[in-house]
Amino acid sequence: MKMADKVKMLVIPLVLIPFLIIISGTFIFGRIYLKSVFGTKGNGTLEPYANPVMTMNSVAEEILKELEADTVNHPDQLLDRSYLEGLNERLAENNTFFMVRIENEIYFRGKADTEELDTLLPAYGDNEQIEGGLFVDGSNPFFLRQQDFSLSDGRNGSIFVITYTDRLVRNMKQILIELMLMVVGVLMLVSGFTSLYIYWVFVRPLKLLQEGTERIKEGNLEVDVAVLSDDEIGQVCQSFNEMRVKLKESVDDRMRYEQENRELISNISHDLRTPITAIKGYVEGIMDGVADTPEKMDRYIRTIYNKANEMDALINELSLYTKIDNNAIPYNFAKINVASYFDDCIEDISMDLESADVKLEYRNQCRKETRIIADPEQLRRVIGNIVTNAVKYNSKEERQIRIQVMPYEESFVCIQIQDNGCGIAKKDLPLIFKRMYRTDASRNSSTGGSGLGLAIARKIVEEHGGRIWAESEEGQGTLIAFTLKQYQEPESRAEEEKERS
């Protein structure tokens, strides 16, 4: 669900729910209030809600009608005090009482301490003048209804039905207070629900995201942030987790690179120390007069020269690898004819292999017009490094190297260099193109070398858009192959050359 939809959902509890609760509460409290004031009267209509004063007045009129029937049919019954007390108790349920006046004296008073009303009561026969009237007794307003009657002995009297409105006012205040408390309670409830909703939907995922950033700040890149939804915040959390993975990979690569650099420095230091130690030993022999004959002197000097060349080659390879690793070598790509280039290259290699007593076989299966896109100098370096490794790690009496050039797939040329040496174990095969890796565990191998040859070859081949791999079987030899892109003639030029031929 999108964030906008969740915000829309938030409007429902903020607006609709409080409105419904307040309306319902007003109705419920209103019914309680009306019942407390009017008893069971007036509960079936809406008039008590709109005008409770008029409703109270109507209740008084209903009571007066009941008394009117009694005064007409049984007027002398109004002299029975027990009857009057029972009728007054029934009227008290509606906050109403009545008084009976015969001639000019109060015969029955339904409520004590109301003598001050005596002077306010109208005379016999004046009931029409007070129809719907509202009187005030001190600070207490009241409704007054009058019903005149005549006794059998000829005396005249009046019944006064009095309804105080003070209870109405008290109940109105109470209902207002209760409504205010209800509104405050509803608002607090909705506010709490809204706060919980906002925390659960918005704040909680942001808090989890903050905890994730704190973990990264402390260097912990192992734990993902929980993705709680698919909205915009969830997408941010998902992107954060992807960033964490990328950052962890970057940190791991950097640590691995630093570890390899430390190993490289250690290995180079060891490889340099060996020829330097030899040079120092032979120089000390010359200084101490150990080389006391021209033959010894010549042998010592040649050894020193060879060791210096080894150091120079090692430093050159290290410098070259550093430049390649930092993309600091500009490649001079050109269109090269495969046949002529490899013929020249094999001719140069064969002289060195012949002096090392290594048999060389060469075969080119590509067409004569096949060309590739490559840097001639760097390509020669790749072939030289592979051939050098093949010679160096071959301890058999009859050493052989086979070089084949052949088409590969549709747009590549494959160069295979195979030897008949001791081979490489399967566990070491995927690692031989890593820098400074040697299949022998000891750095004191008599083969020497920097361990960078195949790593440099891989870098150059990949920069040419090809790939390099190795196949080997222990005791049988090793095959190292790499691919280079063919140069494809444009269709128009190819058609022209075809017509000329």
Descriptive overview:
The structure is a single chain. The chain is α+β, with helices and mostly antiparallel strands. Helix content is 54%, strand content 17%. The strands form 3 sheets. A 5-stranded antiparallel β-sheet has the order 2-1-5-4-3. Strands 7-9-10-12-11 form a 5-stranded mixed β-sheet. Strand 1 and strand 2 form a beta hairpin. Helix 5 (166-217) packs parallel to helix 6 (232-287), helix 7 (294-325) packs parallel to helix 10 and helix 9 (376-392) packs antiparallel against helix 10.
The parts where pLDDT drops under 50 for at least 5 residues are 441-447
Biggest sheet character: 5 strands, antiparallel
What is the strand tally? Answer: 12
Order of helices and strands: HHHHEEEEEHHHEHEEHEEHEEH
- What is the molecular shape? rod-shaped
Q: If you average the pLDDT, what whole number results?
A: 78
Termini Cα gap: 69 Å
What is the strand content? Answer: 15-25%
What strand order characterises the main sheet? 2-1-5-4-3
Radius of gyration: 57 Å
Estimated helix fraction: 40-55%
Q: How many individual helices?
A: 11
Structural class of the secondary elements? alpha+beta
Topology record:
Elements: H1 3-38, H2 47-50, H3 52-73, H4 81-92, E1 96-102, E2 105-109, E3 134-137, E4 140-150, E5 156-164, H5 166-217, H6 232-287, H7 294-325, E6 334-337, H8 338-355, E7 358-364, E8 371-374, H9 376-392, E9 399-408, E10 412-419, H10 453-463, E11 468-473, E12 477-485, H11 491-500
Parallel strand pairs: 7-9
Antiparallel strand pairs: 1-2, 1-5, 3-4, 4-5, 6-8, 9-10, 10-12, 11-12
Helix pairs in contact: 1-5, 5-6, 6-7, 7-10, 8-9, 9-10
